[in-house]
Amino acid sequence: MGDITVSRAYDREPTEGAVFLVDRMWPRGVRKDDLRLDGWARDVAPSADLRRWFGHRPERFEEFRARYLRELDANQDAVHPLLEAARRGPVTLVYSAKDTEHNNAVVLREYLRRHLTPSLR
Q1: Which of the ends of the chain has fewer CB neighbours closer than 10 A, N or C?
Q2: What's the pTM value of the predicted model, to 2 decimals?
Q3: Spans of the chain, pLDDT less than 70
């Protein structure tokens, strides 16, 4: 099982393993040739309504997180390819938000890690 990291599309940091853009929209000002991607997982991104409601306001992050986790639970078909990639090796989730701590990729990484780890019950 591989590690799951997050990387901002604009930072051009080195990425590991399978690399997926996890935003619904392409990062503004980034050429498609500039991102080495194995896939664009648009369907795992937060819904347009949730994204607009959140508005990248840190004070709304905990509620955004809870709502987004519910959306992911309801969208297993979209999540499945990312889980499979993570079972094979490292995965990098690429996002475009400015805030590196309060964004959908951080929540998605948490979700994937939780679903990869066997229950300790």
Answers
A1: C
A2: 0.91
A3: 1-2, 14, 118-121
